[in-house]
Design goal:
The protein has 228 residues and is mostly helical. It folds into 3 domains: 96 residues, Orthogonal Bundle (434 Repressor (Amino-terminal Domain)), CATH 1.10.260; 70 residues; 40 residues. It has 12 helices and no strands.
Length: 228
Amino acid sequence: MIARIFFKFLVISGKTNISLDRRMADKKNPTAVQIGQRIKQARKMAGYGTAAQLLEHIPDWGTGRLGNYEAGISLPSPDDVKTIATITGSSSCWIMFGLGPIRATGRDVQAVRHQNFVYILENCNTQKCAITGFLKATGLSRKKIDEHINNPFLTIADRIAKKCEKYANKPIGWMDEQHVESDPVCAAFPEDMRQVMEIYSGLDDEKRKLFLQIAEVFSQTRTDVINI
C-alpha cells in the first residue's frame, strides 16, 4: 500500500514516467536509477548472475523490461516490484525505498553490518580528521570503503567488524545487531521510544538484563497505582 502511494506521488509530481522518452535518455530519473541498482543487487544476491536467468521465472515479461528497470530507464510499478521481491527473496520496501531489512524474511547479518558500517562512517564525516583514524584502525583504503558503502551485499569480514566496534568504542557484537540510531526505519518511532531503544542498544548483555528488570518493576508499579 505504501509503495503504491509513493509511486502515485512520483507520477503526479512529474518526477517520473513509466516509459521515459528520448528526452530522458541523457538525464535519467535519480529515483529510477536508485531503485534499478537495488533490483540488480537483489537479483545477484538471489544467485541470478544475469537478467535472463531471472526472467526465466517471469515468462510474461519482455526481454527489455527488467533491463530497463535495472538501468534506471523506467520506474517499475508496485506490482512489478512485488514480483521481483518475491522471486529474489527480498523486501519490496527495501527495493522501492532502500529502507528496512533487505531480505523479506528478516535481517541479513551482512545487511545489518552494512547499516552499522555506514552509521560509523557518517559519524566520522562529522568530526575533523576522524575518517583518517577510521582508515588506520580498520586497515581499509578509501576505495574499499566506497565499495562497501555502494554495495550492501559486499561481505564485511568478522575481523573488520571487530575493528569497527573497537574504533567506535562499541561492545563486542554491536556490528551484528540492529540499532535504532543506525536504522532509518526507526526514524518513524516516537522520540521517547527511540531514546529508550538507543540506551538499550548501547548496553552490554548484563546491563541489558538489569535494564529490563528495572523496566518490569516500573511497569508493575504503574499497574499497581492504576489499580488503586
